[in-house]
Amino acid sequence: MSCLVHSCDLCSPLSPPLLATLLQIGPCLTCFPRSRFRTRRRDLSGRARACSFSLSRRDRVFFALPLLDTAMSNRPFSPNALAGKVCIVTGGASGIGYATVKAFLQAGAKGVTIVDLSADAINRAIDALAQELGAEVKDRLYACAGDVSQEETAERYVQETIRQFHRLDISVQCAGISLPSTDVADLKVSDWDKTMGVNLRGVFLGVQQSIRGILETPRGDGEGGDAAIVLVSSQLGLDGYAGSAAYSASKFALRGLMSSVAQEVGPKGIRVNAVCPGPIETPMLEGFSAEGHLTKGNIKRAGKPEEVAYAILFLASEASSYMCGSSLKVDAGWSKWC
Ligand SMILES: NC(=O)c1ccc[n+]([C@@H]2O[C@H](COP(=O)([O-])OP(=O)(O)OC[C@H]3O[C@@H](n4cnc5c(N)ncnc54)[C@H](O)[C@@H]3O)[C@@H](O)[C@H]2O)c1
Fold it and tell me: Which protein family is it in (predicted)?
């Protein structure tokens, strides 16, 4: 994508945030007074080095920003969107969680802890990420196996992350389960408890420990600095669905948790939001009929894990700096009420 920005002597110069945003979008062509360019160039430090420019008039500089690596044009976000950030992704060994870890690494995260049930599954995910992104990403990954519904797991993955990477900025609560569809009249109490245990209790524990961890590490502005917690709810957290009472109740409740916690910690600099995916092609969707995906959504296919991961990345990054307490639908319009 390329864009043309014109700023003449009568206009105010481009502000560093605007220019930084343009740099993130992709190759740009901008124009503004040369004297100010020097300042802006300094503001952008190393990132403006890729600019090529030519003088067109004495007091004006045109410069193109073909920017950084060409691979960036395949990504809808900046390779610096999460520079220096340390993140946790629960359920990171598979599906949406895996795609989120990958997106975070591509966005320059300093470190990502993958939390999942089995150490083997996490190690396979790490090998796959190294295959996709290069062996050096292994230095930015940390594995933490455990059951998120257990209190000690959340405490452990937060503390080990801080020990490993010396801070915590972002926590994505993605681990979840969906048991086979059952009418509520036949639903086993044990299945209800299991669903709530992972999808709600696990997220509550993760949010609680993550807040403590984020506040424990030194921040810039405010107590939390630019910290973010993203909860993975669902389209079924917006609309119920026959046969999914336990799952849907857990995902509705998760948004209640998100909304309350956002009010508590938003003022401390920790933004808390939720993403509500529609049907996404992951192991969780296997066994479910494709009919609903093709008929209910406005885009006639199931989503891909990375299409949710990009929304999570947006909520985790400063691009969403005025969002706190929101539920972001990524469901091609499946759920209609909001
Ligand atoms: N796939 C979809 O259609 C869809 C739609 C809406 C929401 N979601 C939500 O997205 C999230 C990710 O699901 P997915 O589709 O990527 O599924 P997935 O099965 O591919 O990934 C879920 C991951 O969570 C892990 N996990 C499950 N229970 C755990 C536990 N107790 N402790 C630690 N890890 C555990 C699994 O091992 C797995 O790696 C879930 O919260 C799910 O409810 C998925």
Answer: Belongs to the short-chain dehydrogenases/reductases (SDR) family.
Are 210 and 156 within one domain? Answer: yes
Pocket mutation for ligand 1, best pick of 282, 301, 329 (most atoms within 8 Å of C-beta): 282
Q: 163 and 295 share a domain?
A: yes
Ligand 1 center–CA 158 separation, angstroms? 19
Instruction: In whole angstroms, give the CA distance from residue 271 to residue 195.
Output: 26
**Catalytic residue positions?**
247
- Return the higher-pLDDT residue of 68 and 74: 74
pLDDT value at position 250? 98
For residue 279, being part of any structural domain is answered with: yes
Q: Is 30 in the pocket of ligand 1 (CB under 6 A)?
A: no
**Among 10-24, 133-147, 154-168, 224-238, the least confident range:** 10-24
Tell whether ligand 1 has an atom less than 6 A from the beta carbon of residue 280: yes
Q: If you measure from the C-alpha of residue 224 to the centroid of ligand 1, how many angstroms do you get, rounded to a whole number?
A: 28
Ligand 1 in reach of 232 Cβ (< 6 A): yes
Confidence (pLDDT) at 317? 96
Nearest-10 crossing angle of helices 119-133, 95-106: 40
Please give the residue range of the domain that contains residue 279: 75-330
Clarify whether residues 7 and 59 are in a common domain.
yes
- Residue 133 and residue 65 share a domain: no
Question: How many angstroms does the Cα of residue 324 sit away from the middle of ligand 1?
Answer: 23
Of all residues in the chain, what percent carry a pLDDT higher than 90? 67
Residue 336 lies in a domain: no
Looking at every residue in the chain, the average pLDDT score rounds to 82
Task: Look at residue 221 in the predicted model and tell me its pLDDT.
Answer: 56
